Amino acid sequence: MSTSHVLLGLLAAGPRHGYDLKRAHDERLPQAKPLAYGQVYSTLGRLERDGLVEQRGQDREGGPDRTSYALTDAGRARLSEWLTAVEPPAPYVTSTLFAKVVVSLLAADTGTATDYLVAQRAAHTARLRELTAVKTAPASTVGDVVAADYAIAHLDADLRWLQTTLLRVADLHREVNR
Amino acid sequence: MTTVLRGSGMHRAYGPTPALRGVDIEVGEGEIVAVTGPSGCGKSTLLHCLAGILRVDSGEVRFRDQDIALWTEAARSRLRRTEFGVLFQFGQLVPELTAAENVALPLLLAGAHRREARKAATMWLGRFGVGDLADQLPGAMSGGQQQRCAVARALVTEPKVLFADEPTGALDVLTGEQVLREIVHVVREQGTSVVLVTHEAQIAAYADREIVLRDGVVDATGLGLGARA
Q1: Residue A62 pLDDT greater than 70, yes or no
Q2: Which of A26-30, A38-42, B63-67 is the least confident region?
Q3: Would the CA dihedral through B153, B155, B161, B163 be positive or negative?
Q4: Å between A119 CA and nearest CA of chain B
Q5: Contact yes or no for A125 and B202 at CB 8 A
Q6: Are A161 and A153 in contact (CB under 8 A)?
Q7: Taking a C-beta distance cutoff of 8 angstroms, is the pair B62, B68 a contact?
């Protein structure tokens, strides 16, 4: 999962400083590894260098480094691109899927999150069908079947999660934007 | 692909409760179509209406370009004995009859001679790996063996369309998968079309195509949950 995209998403609602971004990240993505401050600032540095965020003033009250950052137009475009791109259907992408849904809700709306889930489900289903075809092919060995089983079981878990999440999207939207 | 079965504008209610609210579905020759969706979405009702077990309240069910929804129960029943095969989750075998007698039943009802029917039944049991159980009663068989007999019985008439409603739902994962793979293998060989009702993505993945129902209508998003989100 890409921290830079999540930070872009967290900036979609307005400028924030590093400390605030770290807190929002850890709160919204409780399954992800908590962000280290160093990582927040190094990521912001890279995003600034690439013209995706820009500095938007200093807040001297809370400590030494309280530079706030804002999304640029290029940053907004990059975020939108990420939110609509389907992840390669492979096992263990759930954390990225979850991050995309949450960031969609923060940065866009229920419709964007739903469109993404619909596209992702189609990709997962297509991959599931391909792997199932591997299992039913006459030349398949037991080894092929066992390997396909592993991927199928994990994709199926993702799909179940996608379906349930879609049901919960509206509730999540309310919670995230509270 | 030639369309074998086509339902259009299918409506069906149970008393005041609508189960199908205008479903359109096409099944091509030799095509396996999965019908999925959450509990209560109308998928079993759709299968029953397509198979002529239930009648639609309005809309059409065309098989070989005839609207079978207009047919009498006797005519639809004849169709199910000859052109359609039906397979449920469990409990379809007659407990007093042996495996071979169960499988021969549809042929005998269609007027076949006893010896021919027995021969075909044994052959079909063999095709599903339970040929040596021909003289056993269902009660003496495992769930997987019973379901293989039920599959053999559903296919013994070499139907044009097989309707399978959660056909592996009562079996453990491995047995269910073996039975499903055998079904897919045989229907591919025979060129039989299949309407496969399931709530599981892993089972639906055996189909060529998937139709998702939600609240009695086809959900174009495929998520089966669209409107609620």
Answers
A1: no
A2: A26-30
A3: positive
A4: 9
A5: no
A6: no
A7: yes
Instruction: Give one DSSP letter per residue of A78-124, joined into a string.
Output: HHHHHHHSPPP--TT-HHHHHHHHHHHHHHS-HHHHHHHHHHHHHHH
Task: Please say whether the dihedral angle defined by the alpha carbons of residues A128, A145, A141 and B164, taken in this order, is positive or negative.
Answer: negative
Confidence band for B228, pLDDT divided at 50, 70 and 90: very low
Point out the residue among B181, B200, B210 whose CB comes nearest to the CB of A125. B210
- Residue B8 contacts by C-beta under 8 Å, 6 or more apart in sequence? B24, B59, B60, B62
Q: How confident is the model at residue A64 (pLDDT cuts 50, 70, 90)?
A: low
Yes or no, beta carbons of A166 and B223 under 8 Å apart: yes
The CA angle B11-B169-B43, to the nearest 5 degrees, is 10
Whether the pLDDT of residue B227 is over 60: the answer is no
Contact between A163 and B202 using a beta-carbon 8 Å cutoff: no
- What is d(CA A168, CA A161) in angstroms, rounded to the nearest whole number? 10
Query: What is the pairing mode between strands A67-71 and A16-17?
Result: antiparallel
Please provide the average confidence, as pLDDT, over all residues in chain B.
Answer: 91
Name the E strands within B42-149: 58-63, 66-67, 84-87
- In the predicted model, what is the mean pLDDT of residues B122-143? 95
d(CA B202, CA B177): 9
Q: Which of A23-37, A76-90, B115-129, B156-170 has the lowest mean pLDDT?
A: A23-37
Q: Which amino acid is at B113?
A: H
Which two tokens mark B34? 């999965």
Among candidates B200, B222, B229 on the partner chain, residue whose Cβ is nearest the Cβ of A170: B229
Q: Is B205 in contact with A122 (Cβ distance < 8 A)?
A: no
Verify whether the Cβ–Cβ distance B205 to A163 is below 8 Å: no
B154-174: average pLDDT: 93
Mean pLDDT (chain A) is 84
Q: Which two tokens stand for residue B184?
A: 């897919």
Q: Is A110 in contact with A143 (CB distance < 8 Å)?
A: no
| Contact: B205, A125; criterion CB under 8 Å | yes
CA geometry: angle B76, B79, B81, nearest 5 deg: 115
Query: How do strand A67-71 and strand B84-87 relate by DSSP bridges?
Result: unpaired
Question: What residues of chain A lie within 8 A of the CB of B223, using their CB?
Answer: 117-118, 121, 162-163, 166
